[in-house]
């Protein structure tokens, strides 16, 4: 099987990559074939600038990566995952109507409150299990109500499904990602007729006919039909990047995960959703995972805060070396300044150092004076938020947590890993960096029958461990919790 190569396309909010994988002696051996930036673009629409994804640029990155891989390898399948919630609309001819809008665009400001008058938040949570985020697809659609595009649309495709449609001509809605729309019934794992009906009032239209059939991960969607690309099956993977990232966690037993990139998705894997009032209050989400599982987690603002600071400083004309900045922040007094990273004030792009300084001042914390202090404040605050989220997950789901797996680009941040172990009092196992690609590839291999019979989700985690064990780093919790308890008390 050395020659049998699966190709994963993984688009994160900050970059995209095409990663090849082949099986060798019970391991998935991976190679990053092509990596490209993901840079949103603001474009005028009538009275204001709207933040869009550069979706054709991303598609072009995918084509380049697949071509490069096919030149050197025997490609047998393809799978696509991207960030959640965002979508494209197609007209009756199958043409894309406008560029997909970025979930950080301000069009959803104040929209959820309006939707809740038609669909009470309690009822929405009971049916969908989905956390409240202002950018959930349901609120984006409500923001677009009455637009020419929505009136003309015949199909709504989430980003991975749109890219898959361009590759194969087949339109589906993969379940894990569909679970982030606010339109899916978490128990039935299908579109909720009840919500669609109630939404008619809010939108003045019936969304039902726009929604394609829901498919579960592992389904072969169709065959790639693009000049110059191999004619291989497109396999539905956990097309929500976080779903694939969780498959790629090399965990066993009572583990929690932190999928740490632009966002930090902090939680546990469950067999059944937790739909209690307390869970809704805690803003925990029950997103669908592969094999009927539930990803019970909270969105923590993540390395977005750091990315945006770095971007701002670099735009001011300075060369920023992340490794150096992190080394300097290591020298800063611990827990000097902490802020609530989950404040929605941090969601939008731009002006991040100023917004962080303002949040510190408002919380009565010493305002960071240097870049190193700013970076340290972000990392201390993130570790504190991880600790809060993991304790809440454990309480709400009544589950023990004995180890944390921190995966994604953030697993390269040694200071963050160490702080997370200190704050939580739990060992942190960092890596793999590309857990999302790994989870994507494993689901393809299983769908093609190459993993043999009977490999369940536990088996996929074991394969992830076998594949990644050489790149894992373990951080033991050291020191007392007292400083962290005090910092948490300050934030409250
Ligand atoms: P996404 O999928 O959301 O685009 P990634 O999983 O690719 O995110 O993670 C990107 C983040 O990983 C960056 O914002 C950066 O903070 C962190 N990162 C990447 N490489 C390093 C590194 N060498 N040292 C520290 N942090 C890193
Ligand atoms: C992470 C992610 C996360 C969503 C957000 C929109 O990339 O998919 O799980 O909440 O982006």
UniProtKB/TrEMBL annotation:
The keyword Nucleotide-binding applies. One of its GO terms (cellular component) is cytosol. Gene3D superfamilies: 3.30.420.40. Pfam families: FGGY_C, FGGY_N. Keywords: ATP-binding, Disulfide bond, Kinase, Nucleotide-binding, Rhamnose metabolism, Transferase. Residues 6-248 form the Carbohydrate kinase FGGY N-terminal domain. The keyword Nucleotide-binding applies. InterPro entries: ATPase_NBD, FGGY_C, FGGY_N, Rhamnulokinase. PANTHER family: L-RHAMNULOKINASE, SUGAR KINASE. This is Rhamnulokinase. It comes from Bogoriella caseilytica. The lineage of its organism: Bacteria, Bacillati, Actinomycetota, Actinomycetes, Micrococcales.
